[in-house]
Automatic annotation (TrEMBL):
The keyword Amino-acid biosynthesis does not apply. Its EC number is 3.1.22.1. Belongs to the DNase II family. This is deoxyribonuclease II. Keywords: Hydrolase, Signal. It catalyses: Endonucleolytic cleavage to nucleoside 3'-phosphates and 3'-phosphooligonucleotide end-products. GO terms for molecular function: deoxyribonuclease II activity. It is an enzyme of class 3 (hydrolase). Pfam families: DNase_II (PF03265). GO terms for biological process: apoptotic DNA fragmentation. Residues 1-23 form the signal peptide. It comes from Channa striata (Snakehead murrel).
Amino acid sequence: MATRIRLCLQNVILFLCCIVCSTDISCRNEAGEPVDWFIMYKLPKYKIGEVSSGVEYMYLDSSVGSWQMSKFMVNTSQGAIANTLNQLYKGKVYTSNSSVYALYNDAPPVLDYIQGYGHTKGVLLFDQSQGFWLSHSIPHFPSFPERGYVYPSSGKVNGQTALCMTYKYEQFLRIAKQLVYIYPRFYNCSVPAPFLVDLPQLAQLCEGSKPQLTADRKAEELFSIQGDKFVSFVKSEHFVDDIYTGWVAQVLQADLLVESWQTQGHDLPSNCSLPKHTMNIKRIRLPGSVLFQSHHDHSKWCVSRAYEDQVTCIGDLNRERPQLWRGGGLVCSFHPLIYKAFRQVVDWYIGC
């Protein structure tokens, strides 16, 4: 009898622990379950030989192993991004003093475009335990909390990427300092009083002021909740150079193949003048024979050309001249699964 009662109590405790774990703020997968990280690659509307809806996307996390076509559409309230953001929207966390949130985009929804901010887009949501950082390339996204999850019609035309990472609270103290360099346009945010001592720079950004910098760029190691290593590279407008060529490739000691949205007349050619080179990707081939040109892809990412380097970076900046004078960043991973997923979709690039 005593043994049976003890087993029952253990099961109750285990059940309660699972409930607590499932309510922690984190990136959420396609089924709404917590994950360490995920990556979304939204397909462009115009692919080679095909016109599609512009809301289909491929999904990747450590459990699925390779790109998977999602059964959801990015403009519905289902799927990984919606599940992740609905922690802010549906739970009305934005009205609470127990968590920090920030929505930033140099081209925010509804509001007019204002020059001077970094070319960067993303979402932070965390409490004093943990939370997520969602970095993406989608203009006019996400919507204000009061509106709930809305995907902009303007985000259908081009390809887009999003990287979500789950971190413990201590990592957000580092992320906040990184954001100072890129000077994001926070169009909706809250840093409640219990967080002000730990996050003074984030509070300043939230108020619209620009904290002082001690350098023109900064690299910071970050570790996800499961221990995966990421490196955040951020530059201010005072570092007037291509982030890929002039900094990241040289620091990582890797030749990089770069996918970024380049506008005609402002694009930067492949660069082989420094010890490590950067080469522009011109065509992408995702699984299922999804083939499209880089000028239909608004995403920004790069991979090392050599397979042994295993470098993948996802971020903010395009390889074009005006963005030499813009703040922005990249989050780099050394995870072999992420590298394989991105390296195998490079269909054609302009070499040296």
